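Entry type: protein chain
Record version: 2
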Amino acid sequence: MSLSGKLESIDANAISGFIQSPHPLSVIDKLFIVVDKFPFALRPEHVSGSDRCRDGRVEFAVPTSEILQAGFADAPLAWRRQEKVVALTFNLQVLDARVVRAFDAEISARAEKGWCTLQVTTDVQISRVTIDVEINGSFYLGFVVGTRRPISGNASPTGTCSFPLPFSAQDTDIFDLAVFQTNGFVRQLRFDGVLDASMAEDIDRLSRQYYPPGGRAERPVAIVIPLHGSLETISHCIGSVLEHTDASARLILIQGISVDSRTAAYLELLGRSDRISLLSHDLSQGDTRAVNAALQMAPKEDIVVLSSDVTVGPRWLSGLATAIYSEGNIATAMALSNTNGPFFVEVTTPHESEHRNALCRSAAHRSLGLLPATPIAWGPCIYFRRAALDDVGPFDADTFPIGEGAQIVFCLKASKAGWRHVVDDRTLVLCDSKPDRPPQKWDPLAPIRATDQFHNYPEFESLIGSLKSNQALAMARFRVHGARDDARMRILSVISTDTGGTPQTNQDLQRGIAEEVEMLVLRSDGQMLTLTDAANTVIRTHRLLEPMTLGTHVSAEYNQVLQRWLVELAIELLHIRHIAWHSLSLTWIARILHIPVIYSFHDYYSVCPSLRLLDGDNVYCAGVCTPSETPCTPDLWDTALSPPLKHRFVRTWKEMMESTLMACDAFVTTSQAARDLMVAHYPFLNDQPFSVILHGRDLPMAHLADVFPPAPEAPLRLMAPGNISPAKGSDILLRLQDLRPVDEMQIHVAGATVAEVQNSALITTGPYAREDFPEIVARIRPHMGLILSIWPETYSHTLTELWSCGVPVIALDRGAVGERIRESGGGWLLPESAGAEDVLALIAHLERRPDEYALRCAEIARWQVGLGARRNISAMANDYLALYRRMLVSKSLASHVSS
């Protein structure tokens, strides 16, 4: 009798039928159910016993879920059609075929406040609907919706479920969401337009306060890497670790008993470093015993076990450490990766290392910081907390000498002891090779199923099954899936005021480094913290409950907020350009997080809150209190609410500042004079990286000074630019105007001024935008400029601007102004104590010697085509980029390895 067969029933639960056959049961090996050309082989377990085998008739039932899961992995689009051809075949011969329609289920969706809610209405015979959700064509989340018929009436069974949308309030993408019922029904739901904050409202609830105020405990870390593969593979891995790992960690490299000569030479060179240890071990029988040996070499340290076929990115170790110390009972934290397994993220590994770094950065920038909980730690990069290792013990090398079983059983034991496991969704590691099995087919039970351990953990199978419906993990995967390979290093620049040269120079620097660095800017007015991006768009704000005060200059609330922002925004370097109105603890917060800190001195606030080192009588003190009894004034603070500076609080202030500066890694100022003064007050700075980087400006060059000396009937025109106050020489200017009438000498003041200047015979033009400066000079046509600051300025943008317009300058020989005029000419220097009479005497001398005036103008012309042209924003940006790179290298393990 020939073989025949029939498909009797096709529903949401199973495809069933029978085969009439004179042959033994082994013929099943050649039977297939084919759905839209996708073949699924019947297996003996689909026939459940002898009660189905009678008179040559064999009955079978195949769960629909098995067919759909297999098909979804390899041919997902086949399941999107409403009608399908289902056939029963034997040895390519069709025994029976039917055209079936997908079982109907009405699915509606709505999204609000960060959540999507589905309502499912099904056919009467369907009580459970398995749902998969896709976003932008990629799997996002899967779960089962139970449906129930209402108690009264004839309405169809219905069920609902909700899940969070993986977006933050800052996202502006349009996305497609597809709800896919695994028996073939699909609803395509499109949300068009810009997502607003209401759709992301609950993200803050999900992204909890993971980063406690005190930061993580300072525990040393050892990175253990069992070495497998070619020299190229392991050198890529080790190279990335050296580049991106803080020098406080150490590296334990486990090499096999037999390695080729090139690899041996490479490892021998690495082994010369005091931060790298080599361990020889037989790896042919597995890694578990070798890793246990490495644990013994680092008995007090946290451990990271890293596969040698992956590369890591910026701040990978800090991310894992921050995650594991976010709570007191987290035993393991693992990175996401593009290797197979439950924590697989679909990304393509770029070939160039800079693009790999950018991809890892993008993953951190896009992350919501959810730290999804998981029953196990599995993957190529796992951080183990030392307290958990001590509590649970080493890995079970006898039962699991090779493979993932040792890690899995460790996690199960730890869970029973009260420990937890999380995924660090800010950290991505990249594998060169493609996964050797699709993530949907990864079987975490396989390693322990083959041992006698399985019965010890009856809960494990259900725990693993929950990973598919883990909403936080789904959100984390989706965010990383959208990572791009063009993300830039993020730096946080800290400033105080919005006026003056510092914020303007910061904007110049922000633009100059934009191709390589994304600089965010943090401002504070003492109570409101504002964080902006390169486009000056506000991305974070926080109002402190209690405003900052000069007496403490520290706020616990500020510290909490900044610690969280530094982590959430994946900041790689902190550049403090001015710390007024910020917490002095900021440098130590960055140090705890292993973020390098660069501190700039643009005035003398770090020596005394008087800022310009002028005492209460406007006498320059150089940071040493004068004998005068007149109280000193803190320039940026309410005097009535501030402690007395002179001879009293200034001593405490220097102690406070010294502690802040001790936590920094490098320092910058803009003149040698400023550097010398800071070293005089803080001698330890002389032994630290302390650079002098001149400001750069992109300025048009012109010759707008009028002919000197002026005609007999014409007045001499002098121009004093900037925010003119007593510190900027307003008293000298007022006295100067008193000494000569306006019809003989005009003094034009361009910029904000004090009331005494506004009410005098001085000619004021008011505040101006710096791009309008050449127009103002062209209108005034000054013969000379005046820079009469009675304190040593650290640079003087007004000197640069006057020279760019071809105007020679009379100045007091103080600070950077004196340095620059001595170096380039272009003006005349008067003694520090000079007054208005000395200025007039110099002018009278020049009127008798116009050749000296012409000489200064010629020096300006040389400056315009020389240093003035070279010292542009690009040159300044290159100097800062070089400093940033040096700092990152000096703080990394690479600095401990000889080339």
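Comment: Residues 313 and 357 are 5 Å apart (CA to CA).
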